Amino acid sequence: MRLRIALLTLLAASISFGALAQGDGKSEEVKKITSRPSRDFVMFDLMFNGWLNAPDSIKTTSIGRGANFYVCYDFPLGKKQETHFSFAAGVGISVSNIYLKNQEIVLNDFTDSIPQAQFIAETKDYKRYKLTTAYLEAPFELRFFGNKYNRNKGFKTAIGMRVGTLVSAGTKGRENGSKINYQTKTKNYLENWRFSASVRMGWGNFGLTGTYNLTNLYKDVQGPPITPYSIGISLTGL
After folding, report:
1. What are phi and psi for residue 156, nearest 5 degrees?
2. By three-state DSSP, how is residue 31 classified?
3. What burial letters (b/e) apply to 50-76, b meaning 16+ CB within 10 Å?
4. DSSP letter at 226?
5. Are 148 and 197 in contact (CB under 8 A)?
6. Whether 136 contacts 165, CB under 8 Å
7. What's the CA gap between 128 and 100, in Å, rounded?
8. What stretch of H or E contains 7?
9. Which DSSP letter does residue 141 get?
10. Rounded-to-10 torsion of CA 118, 120, 122, 123
11. What residue spans define the domains of the chain?
12. Could you report the per-residue pLDDT of 78-106, keeping only the tens digit for each?
């Protein structure tokens, strides 16, 4: 009889200890899940660049290339462990290259007329000729995360605006059969500020992104009314 009572007591203690251990495990699991604060602090984009509204006389190759790199800070909208939405702001650099086809850009800076950037037929046999721009840029985004516990997994999307100030701009051409590069600075002819709408959509750390300029590339009457855009892939994390 005493042995039976002892066995029942031991069994009850084992069940109680197991339930307690299981409860602690669940708490630890929840703690681990909710302690993953990935907020897409870093964004890196590889872009294909193009121009809209350019006159038919301007000829570009099919693919322009560029890259963006941003460091952002994310502000959850609501309770951190419950919300699927956040607002983010950051700073970074955006570089774009557009390649012309059998054309070059000349700068008309005569004193008796308004300085203008003009696209003309190439005067040399260029192997490639491009216009490069670089902006110091601040992205602002309204973000949605499908997985509120781990933003490195699941569906995510963002819409926003990017505000940039022009750092440098210039043309660069290399003649066929030569290693000489012909370079011209064109910053004074371009708008100093750039405002663009942006959208991102993806799964986990990878996604697609696009931007559309709300301002023209060139200043009024100092160049054609070109509107840049870009489409590419985006890598986010941390």
Report:
1. -150, 150
2. helix
3. bbeebeeeeebeeebbbebebebebeb
4. -
5. no
6. yes
7. 8
8. helix 2-34
9. E
10. -80
11. 1-35, 36-237
12. 887 788 999 999 999 999 999 999 999 99
- Cα separation of 12 and 198, whole Å? 62
Q: Residue 149 — pLDDT band, cuts 50, 70, 90?
A: confident
Helix, strand, coil % (nearest 5) of the chain?
A: 15, 55, 30
Short-list 161, 167, 156, 166, CA closest to 208: 156
> Which amino acid, residue 132?
T
- Tens of pLDDT, residue by residue over 160-201, are 999 999 999 999 998 887 777 888 888 889 999 999 999 999
Residues 6+ apart with CB under 8 A from 213: 194, 195, 196, 227, 228, 229
Q: Average pLDDT for residues 203-229, to the nearest whole number? A: 95
Indicate the SS3 state at residue 18.
Answer: helix
Q: What pLDDT score was predicted for residue 110?
A: 58
How many other β-carbons are positioned within 10 Å of the β-carbon of residue 156?
22
Averaged pLDDT score across all residues of the chain: 84
- Burial class from Cβ neighbours inside 10 Å (0-12, 13-18, 19+) for residue 229 reads middle
- Beta-carbon contacts of 31 under 8 Å, excluding residues fewer than 6 positions away, are none
3-class SS letters over 74-134: EEECCCCCCCCEEEEEEEEEEEEEEEECCEEEEEECCCCCCCEEEEEECCCCEEEEEEEEE
The pLDDT assigned to 229 comes to 97
The pair of structure tokens assigned to 116 is 């203008």
